[in-house]
Every structure is written in structure tokens, then in C-alpha cells.
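Standup notes, structure subgroup. Blocker cleared on the nicotinamide-adenine-dinucleotide input:
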Amino acid sequence: MRTYLVTGGAGFIGSNYIHYMFRKYGDQIRIINVDKLTYAGNLENLKDIEDRDNYTFIRADICDSEAISKIFEENDIERVVHFAAESHVDRSIKNPEVFVKTNVLGTLVMLNAAKAAWELPDGSFKPDHKFLHVSTDEVYGSLEEDGGYFYETTPYAPHSPYSASKASSDMLVKAYMDTYHFPANITNCSNNYGPYQFPEKLIPLIINNALHGKKLPVYGDGKNVRDWLFVEDHCKGIDMVQEKGRLFETYNIGGHNERQNIQIIHIILDTLREMLSDSDPRRALVSDDLITYVEDRKGHDRRYAIAPDKIKAEVGWYPETKFEDGIRKTIAWYFEHEDWMKNVTSGDYQKYYEDMYSGR
Ligand code: NAD
Ligand code: TYD
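Run returned:
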């Protein structure tokens, strides 16, 4: 039975990935999930799989090299899928330090622990042991409104503290591959949306605010473009890259679903109106009048877009879920998980929201 070490598995993409992997491989794999449980980590996301015999949760900080090394010493980890990170651009603008700690130093700890466990006396590595570093297309910087796509060959030009820290972590993974021939891949993915996403990110924030008749904050002119990918398609891409991709290669994941933020907001409002029955009291709260233009994000990247040519040609992956279907599935999930949303928006979230939006 192959053992996976997943970091950040209690977060948005990590928890979707764990669900995806158990759906796909069932009892053929074992997953150890290591997560510090920051504000973004939530064991509620994994309630339905927590009792499986082939699943283990370990609460640990990826910056804690002793704790991480111990996991490698006690288990024959054959696959690492490294999600754990601070992931929100706005928070990185307010407090960059923790981004460098977790995203850069934490990745270094993960690389060192895997290298120590997998390296053989002759400097080669145990066969079929692999590390996948999950990264973002934001490392490539910003595209012009009408100008081209990000490719794996696009030079790195990060702007935010978040993307700079992810770029640094990518560079460390590349350095380990180049220096030690460390068996790894990097994936750089576009913006994800779907179940379990924390409502600091655009799509769940807009869904939640609209359902409560709260203002929908649009940064700047609302015309910044993101290339949205349904999270399950990303999870599938990660697995396909790790099993079918060429080792040491980078693959961009995303593709051809570019939307302006303001378009996203209108699609969400229209879909909510379609999906809520007339008798549902939330229906009356959903209104275009909630749209509020606010002060722009500092250093706001204008456009991200991926042409997924390499992953399609080499691995056979393509984005399967149409946005209209993905957004309906996402909204349906939030309808069915009102308690989840209530729990994550109580307490600290109120203070976060106040800090982030009251001055705008
Ligand atoms: P998230 O913020 O929802 O989850 C991050 C998880 O990491 C949380 O469970 C958190 O508790 C955990 N974590 C944070 N610091 C930790 C530490 N020091 N030690 C151990 N665990 C820690 O993030 P996400 O949106 O699921 O993103 C996952 C990964 O995918 C990140 O590396 C991110 O850069 C990358 N990514 C995200 C997107 C996106 O649209 N969300 C797109 C491309 C790439
Ligand atoms: P976000 O979900 O934070 O992802 P990222 O910054 O990593 O792309 O933001 C997506 C886009 O939505 C980005 O252009 C910023 C914008 N945005 C708003 O206009 N209002 C908001 O309240 C948030 C959170 C984001």
C-alpha cells in the first residue's frame, strides 16, 4: 500500500485532494495529513473520512523539522504532496513575515526531511519516491489585458509578498532538483474555486455576503482577470502529474476560463437568484445593489491566464468542469453546508473582516 504525506490537508485544496484520492484509490493508498491548523485549516473538512483505517491526521507545523523528520522516520513515505502554505494575498500585504516562514522555510524543512529519508548512500534516491510541490501561477506576475498566457517558460516576476514567497519556495524545489537530483515536480495552478474554500477568497466571500444582504466589495474597477479552475480538476491534475508527468518538470494547471471579477460577481448573483426559491427569505436579500466598489488592492495584478498546452500534451489533463456547472456545484455545496460557513465566520473572522474592509 503506497503511503502519501499530504501537508495542509485541512485547508481548501488539500481537503478536496484527500477526498479525491480516497474516492479514486479507496483502500489502495494510505494518507498521512500533516497540518498546523491555522485559521485556514479545519478538520470539519475531513469529518467524513477521519475514521478510515488508512488515514492519519498529525497536527504539526511544517517549520518544525523534528516533528516532520519523525514522520519520515516512522513511515515509508513514497509520495509527498505539499500544499501547506499561507495562501491569501491580502493577508500577505498586511503581514508578510508568516508567509516567508511557512512558505519558504517550511518548504525547506519538507525538502530536507524527504531528502534525508529518501537519499541512498551513493547519492541517488529510493526508486519511485516523489515530492510534488503545489504552487501558483501568481509567481509569473501579471499579464496585460489582451496579452498572452503564462507558460512554464515564462520568467518569474512575483509582485505580492504571497507570490514572492511561493516563487522562493519553487526556486528551492528547483535548486534541490538541480543540485541533488531530488525527485520532484512543481505544479503552478490558476485560481481555484469549489467546496471548503475559506470566505476570505473572492468566490465564497461573495456567495456568503450576498446571502446575508451584505455589501459585495469589488477592488478597483473590478476588471482584473483571473483564470478560474474547479478545485476537483486541480486535484486530478496533481495526481496525473505525479503519476504520469516527467520527473523534474514543472506543469501549469488551469485554462481558458478567464473572467473579470465583476463578471464573476454577476454570475454568482444570477445563479443564486436561479437556485433560491421565491419563498426562501434569502432570495430577497440577493441584489445587484450590494455591489460596492472599494479601494484597490495594493500592487493588484491585472490578469492571470494559463494555456495548459504542456500538461495536456504530456499528461493528458485538461480542465473538465465548465464554469457554469462548477459554480452551481459550489453554490449548492454552500447551501448544504450553512453550519460550516457559520462556524468559520464566527469569532476571528469578524475581526479579520473588520480589519480588512472597514478602511476601504
Ligand atoms: P488554504 O489557506 O485553504 O490552506 C492552507 C492549509 O495549510 C491550512 O489547512 C493550514 O492550516 C495549513 N498550514 C498553514 N501553515 C502551516 C504550517 N506552518 N504548517 C502546517 N500546516 C500549515 O490554502 P489553499 O487555497 O488550499 O492552497 C493550498 C496550496 O495551493 C498552497 O500552497 C497555495 O499556494 C496553492 N495554490 C492555491 C490556489 C488557490 O486558488 N487557492 C491556486 C494555486 C495554488
Ligand atoms: P482572491 O480570491 O483573493 O485570489 P487572488 O488574489 O489570489 O487572485 O481574489 C481574486 C480577485 O478578486 C482578485 O483580483 C482580487 C479580487 N477581490 C475583490 O475584488 N474583492 C474581494 O473582497 C476579494 C477577496 C478579492
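Discussed briefly. The two ends are 52 Å apart (CA to CA).
Next: hand off to the docking folks.
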